[in-house]
Structures are given as C-alpha cells and as structure tokens.
Design a protein that fits this description.
It is built from eleven helices and four strands, in the order E-E-H-H-H-H-H-H-H-H-H-H-H-E-E. With about 325 residues, the protein is mainly alpha-helical. A two-stranded antiparallel sheet has the order 1-3. Strands 2-4 form a two-stranded antiparallel ribbon. The C terminus is likely disordered.
C-alpha cells in the first residue's frame, strides 16, 4: 500500500486554519510511480533535450489534473516562512560558490584546493540543513526525509526505481579497471547523499511548506539544475538536469524519505554518467577523503538524532506530516 507525504499549509494569523480532508484514491500515487518509472525508461529511448521536454510537460499536466480534480489548496498554497527561505538562499549560495571555487577556480591543477572546497560544499549542504532543522527550528529529522518513516513503501519504490535505472544504464556495461571506477562510485554515493538531503529534504521541503507542492517540486528541480553551474557546466546542459530534477523530486515526494533516492537511484545515475564522460580521474586516496566527508555527516546526524530523542520535538506548523493514501488535505483560511 503506497502512502504519500504532504506538507500542510496553515494560513491564519490567528492560529491554525481548519483543514478539510480530501479523498485521494489509490490510482493517484500509482500514476506518479508510473511517471517516474516511465521517465527513467525513456532515458534510453529519446534524445536528452526531448526527454527533458516530455518529462516536464507530463509532470505539469499531471499536476494540473490533480489540482482540478482534488482542489488546488495543497498544490499551490502555503504559509511563507521567511527564515526558511532566507536559510535556503544562504546555504544554496554557499554550496554553489564553494563548488564553483573547486571546479572553476582551483580545477585539477590544484587538487588539494579542489577537494577541500568540494568537501566544504558537501558538508555545508548536508550538515547545514541538519543543524538548522534540529537546533534552530527544533523540527524532527523526518522533515528532512531522514528516518525510517514509511519504510516498506520507501524500500519497494527504491528497489523499483533503481532496477529501472540499472536496466537502462549499467546492465551489460563493461566496467574498466577497478582503480578507474571504484573511486567514482564512492564519490557518487557521497554526492548522492548531499543531493538527497539538500535538494529533496531541505530545499524542496521548505519551498513546499511555504508555497505548496508545485512550488516545492518545480523550485527544487530548478535549483537542482542551476547548482550544476558550480561544476562549470554551461546553460545548455541545465535543461536535461531540470527534467531529471523533476523526476527525482516527484520520487521523493511520494514517500518523503531520502532512502527512496539514496543509496541506489541517484548514485547509480551519477556513477554511469561519470563513466560515460570519462573526464574525472580519481586516485585510490580519494576514497579516504570522501569517506571522511561521509563520517562527518554521520556524526552530525547522530548528534542531531540524539538531541531529537532527548527533546522529542513534534512537527511544527508547516512541516511535513505523514498521511495515508486516502488522506490528502485541502487548507482554507480560518
């Protein structure tokens, strides 16, 4: 049984607004699961610019139909949280700036500087949202998509999407020597964690809380595409990444848990792209560096989790809350 997570918007200056339950039939999440699976399968069929256009148009059409059928409330409404939005802007600018410094400023001519700036960007994008969520806003880690909530559905979808991704990318692919692909795989896993926490759990979640589902998915996808300028990518490459961002955002939105994307779906895709491009040459020692980043993130998460257990925070107004497949809410002003 699939479930969908939703961010409830409360829109009254006097207090929480009254919420009205709206029926959400079984076929709705099934349609979005089919959308993600179909989009991944199409990667091997059509040219990437065409793929991005088709995927984006299909997502807009499905969202429009859902809004008309079930009401626009949760899709386009929210309560603006200026502190959240300011934090999103600051952390996003820091991440892009550090990545730009690494890949455009230092480049591979200065490996130490490149890795330090890259690692700093990864840590800002993962530890930053965890610290802000836990100690500044006193929200549970589940609002970042971190936890074991909705685990059966999450695992099922993660395996389904990863299987499709593997089938259209790595199935039958002949790997080079281990020294050429193992460091790339480790890097893909670490960067995949950063992208899942920062862009899905944090950016998408905060935009959705302020502006609704559509803004969360669309804004998260656009910011995901845009951040790749930090890698030195041109504008022409961002169109495909926008479509990919929409697919990943929808996949995350189905369960509100980053495990639907990481450690399988997004690392597999990134790993294949790095192999195909062949423009990154990492030594074995890079594994230790990425391992250090992963360890620091793990320590920050563990400390935050311990803090959460001691204080047992409850989801605040505007945070994501789990609902059953038949329990989507439409808000109205009290």
């Amino acid at each position: 049984m699939w479930t969908m997570s939703t961010t409830m918007a409360q829109a009254s200056s006097r207090g929480p607004a009254a919420d009205e339950a709206v029926a959400w039939p079984r076929w709705v999440p099934a349609v979005w699961v089919a959308f993600v699976s179909g989009a991944l399968l199409l990667l091997d069929v059509v040219a990437l610019p065409v793929w991005a256009a088709v995927v984006t148009a299909a997502a807009v059409a499905l969202a429009a139909v859902s809004a008309v059928r079930f009401g626009a409330g949760p899709w386009v409404g929210g309560r603006v949280d200026r502190a959240d939005l300011l934090t999103v802007v600051v952390l996003y600018a820091a991440v892009v700036g550090l990545f730009r410094l690494a890949f455009v400023g230092f480049t591979q001519a200065n490996v130490v500087g490149l890795f330090l700036a890259f690692a700093a960007g990864l840590l800002v994008g993962t530890a930053g949202p965890i610290a802000y969520t836990t100690w500044v806003r006193h929200r549970p880690l589940s609002t970042l998509g971190l936890g074991l909530h909705r685990l059966p559905s999450t695992v099922a979808l993660a395996l389904l999407f990863a299987a499709v991704q593997f089938a259209v990318t790595l199935w039958g692919y002949r790997l080079p020597a281990a020294v050429e692909w193992v460091p790339l795989l480790v890097m893909s896993v670490v960067v995949g964690l950063f992208e899942a926490v920062f862009f899905r759990g944090f950016v998408q979640g905060r935009l959705e809380a302020s502006f609704g589902i559509v803004a969360g998915v669309a804004g998260g996808a656009m910011l995901y595409a845009g951040y790749h300028v930090g890698y030195g990518m041109g504008v022409g490459e961002l169109w495909f990444l926008l479509g990919l961002g929409v697919v990943y955002a929808v996949a995350y939105r189905l369960v509100g848990n980053v495990l639907v994307l990481w450690p399988l779906l997004t690392p597999l895709g990134a790993f294949f792209n790095h192999l195909q491009a062949g423009d990154i040459d990492l030594p074995w020692a890079a594994i230790a560096g990425f391992g250090d980043v992963l360890m620091v993130v793990g320590v920050v998460w563990w400390v935050a989790w311990r803090h959460q257990r001691r204080h047992q925070p409850q989801p605040a107004s505007g945070d994501a809350e789990p609902v059953g497949r038949a329990d989507v809410r439409r808000h109205r002003h009290a």
